[in-house]
Design a protein that fits this description.
Largest sheet: none
Distance between the termini: 33 Å
Strand content: under 5%
Number of strands: 0
Number of helices: 19
Radius of gyration: 21 Å
Oligomer: single chain
Length: about 450
């Protein structure tokens, strides 16, 4: 399921000019004329990308392998489902409590440390004597450090690529890898389980995390902590206020968090909807792929065919209309039409590249790691909340009514958030507001 913030005044009533602190050892801004290809020419980014690919595949393989392993050990569908859910539940706690580490310690040290923790957890799961309770605790530990890793890696892209267009394209590539994992990762995991026992597949997960740690350790430069040597640690509350206390940053953060809450509703309810229209499991699998395929295609189009200025201009219209195709659920469409609607919703995700740039422009370097850790934490948490609320609503209302309502409500929420962003004024530095209105 994704940026940074200014030196913030927590309770100011009117927009104030933000004084940026100098970032530590930051790479010069790079504006790649060749789009994604130019980003790949940067050696450090290639290491980060390869490490991301290894760790994402490791996580996906671990999820399917652990579900199978726990089910075989207990015979309980509840315990098997709980194993999968534990990949999400500790996310909010870990992201909130650990966010400050992302800026207080050197990024490479934090990233390698997180990978080694996950590798060690997976290695212990492989041991035949590890009980089910131990497996669940280890799964929680892996999920607990995940938001810290993701936030630190996103923030470190500013050091590797600069905070210009290259940063946006680098973030886009990492997101596309995560989306692709939904399409091929579970299939790959299923194939592995035909030739390996679940513990053997989990051993590959441990190897993937270890490989990621080695790539990051030897493929990226050592840089000092963004917060600066001797900076006093922030409490959790102070850290949250620093990131979310500014009106503009808060609006941008909510623009990342809230739209997915509504867009995940059809995904959460695809199985009962498909059953209701008489679609088989093959059709259900095809429908599950529609949104991820649309997301990947939309990001590829925006990143390779559009200029940075155009990507900023399409943020407002594209984000606002993104949930609208789901209004088609009101007509209870069949598989073919539904496939097109879900694909359109995914394609509209192209607005995220422009939103990325707006966010990174709003966040100072010394808070970037904390801000991005909280950003990824909220994104995962709100998606989980959206799925849970969708399931609850579907207990009392028909599925097509729930999805239609989510689409209408989501559109209204996004429109209100953009109105709030306009009212918040221009970003630091005096540049024109990306929503089209000159800053105050």
């Amino acid at each position: 399921m994704i940026r940074p913030v200014p030196n913030l005044c927590p309770r100011h009533r009117s927009p104030r000019r933000v004084v940026r602190m100098p970032t530590v050892n930051q790479a010069p801004a790079v504006t790649p004329a060749g789009g994604y290809r130019t980003v790949f020419r940067i050696r450090e980014f290639r290491a980060v990308f390869a490490a991301h690919l290894m760790s994402v595949l490791g996580v996906v393989i671990a999820e399917i392998s652990l579900t199978v392993l726990v089910y075989r050990l207990t015979g309980s569908p509840l315990m098997s489902a709980l194993t999968f859910a534990l990949g999400f539940l500790p996310y909010a706690l870990g992201g909130t409590l650990l966010a400050g580490i992302a800026d207080r310690y050197p990024a490479r040290r934090v990233l390698v440390g997180c990978d080694l923790v996950c590798a060690a957890c997976a290695a212990v799961m492989v041991l035949p004597g590890t009980p089910v309770a131990g497996i669940l605790v280890l799964r929680c530990a892996m999920a607990f450090v995940a938001p810290l890793f993701q936030g630190t890696r996103s923030a470190s892209l500013g050091d590797v690529l600069g905070t210009g267009d290259a940063f946006v394209l680098g973030r886009s590539l990492l997101r596309m890898v995560a989306q692709s994992a939904q399409l091929i990762g579970f299939g790959l995991g299923g194939l592995l389980l035909t030739v390996l026992a679940p513990r053997g597949a989990i051993a590959l997960t441990a190897a993937g995390f270890l490989g990621s740690a080695l790539l990051l350790r030897f493929g990226t430069r050592a840089r000092p902590a963004r917060a600066g040597a001797g900076a006093p640690p922030m409490s959790v509350g102070a850290g949250l206020r620093a990131v979310l206390g500014d009106r503009r940053v808060r609006a941008l953060t909510l623009l990342f968090w809230l739209p997915p809450l509504f867009v995940v509703v059809p995904e959460a309810l695809l199985a009962p909807y498909a059953d209701g229209i008489g679609a088989g499991t093959a059709a259900l699998g095809l429908l599950m792929c529609a949104q991820p395929v649309g997301v990947i295609a939309g990001e590829l189009w925006a990143g390779s065919a559009l200029s940075p200025r155009t990507r900023s201009r399409i943020v407002v219209p594209l984000a606002t209309v993104a949930p609208l195709p789901l209004l088609g659920y009101a007509l209870r469409p069949g598989v073919a039409v539904l496939l097109g609607l879900l694909l359109l919703v995914g394609l509209a995700h192209a607005y995220t590249l422009g939103l990325d740039r707006m966010y990174v422009d709003a966040v100072p370097g010394e808070l970037r790691g904390r801000a991005m850790t909280l950003l990824s934490t909220g994104l995962m948490t709100f998606q989980g909340v959206g799925m849970a609320l969708a399931g609850l609503a579907a207990e009392f209302l028909p599925v097509h009514v729930v999805v239609t309502g989510a689409a209408a409500l989501g559109t209204a929420v996004v429109a209100l958030l953009f109105a709030e962003l306009r009212s918040a004024g221009r970003p630091a530095g005096g540049s024109r507001d990306e929503t089209g209105r000159p800053g105050k």
